[in-house]
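Hi everyone, sorry if this is the wrong subforum. Our group has a chain we'd like a structural model of before ordering constructs, and none of us has done structure prediction before. Sequence below.
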Amino acid sequence: MERRDFVTAAGATLVLGRTGGLVDGRSEHPSEQLTASPPDRPTALQEPSLPPEVFARRLERARNELKGRGLDLLIATPGTNYEYLAGYNPGRSERLIALLLPVAGLAAIVCPSFEVERIRRHGVITELHGWEEQEDPHALVRDSVHRLSPRSGRGTIALESSTAYQTFLRLGRALPGWKFVDAAPVTERLRVIKSPEEVALLRRAIAITQDAMAATFAQLAVGTTEVAVAHALSREMEQRGAPGGGLVQFGPSSALPHGGPAGPKLERETVVLIDCGCRVGGYTSDITRTIWFGDRPSDEFRRVFNVVHDAQTAAMELGRPGTPGEEMDRAARLVITAAHYGPFFTHRLGHGLGMDGHEPEYLVEGNKTHLEPGMVFTIEPGIYQLGKFGVRIEDDCVMTERGVEVLSQRASRL
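Answer:
Right subforum, don't worry. Here is the predicted structure as tokens:
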């Protein structure tokens, strides 16, 4: 059931939401109304941890993916793929840290000796091999690879995609008999379907984001700057237990999809766009709201806003298991084009969401991948008229067996 939520402060008209849920209103997880709550409200732990059995399942699924693709070993350096498997991201530097996962047997981590205890305490991998500052860590990787995959002394290694090029070159010299391939097909398949535990963390991040966004909108005042509002937004998120932030754009600046903190000071009767997210337990939200700061939205703003809202609804209603990603994009684009704003919708409809703010699957022309239950993604159509204003409405969604469930609270039509 749709409803309008209005939060008014300093003359701001904030059209912020209806309950989240399936497009047909059958959600089993109704969201609370989007209103700003006190920052001292009790919250969940800042970094909720997933139980060890979750990572055991992930490692086993990774081994099965390696086996099914004829691969012998996965090597990942710190980043979200590393964290997905190891339970902790120690950060990347000039000192090599690498997770080694063989197709059979226990995973191991190669890291500086002085980092062994830190990584052991925070992660789930128990076999760690430390190297001293004067040693070549790539030689230790070589020895570990031979120990973990002793079958022939050679084979195929899936190397995590974001690994630094210099690391790739040095690993290649240390393991001349091994073939290196891109691990993206493995890691993307592992991560694209979210488990219930992952969706729960995303729900928490979304709730904090919307609460912090409402509190930030309530603080808008004539003469403030985009930078000042962005700082306030980050503070509101941190006070609720999650690091985060985002883009803040006033007036003509909102016509730039990714803007920048150089717009004019806030005046009455103008557009304010905030695109933001926070991180809970390693999982990231991504929500955009565009509001009218003033007494009454202009007729043009109201018209554009409703076209964008209708485009978002069209995509949400189309989405079912098996729907190609490109069809979602087409459904929204058709609505915007029919309203004669087609040239002003300049980006894809949406992107996957999880440990990274942008990850597969992408809702864009040319992506014929069929959406599956458990996939989490944004739906964020926009209309951007340079020199005037832009409107983007972005919500976080999960595909269920019955269709698209909206995890965030949708804005209402004007």
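For your construct planning: Confidence is low (pLDDT under 50) at residues 1-48. The radius of gyration is 23 Å.
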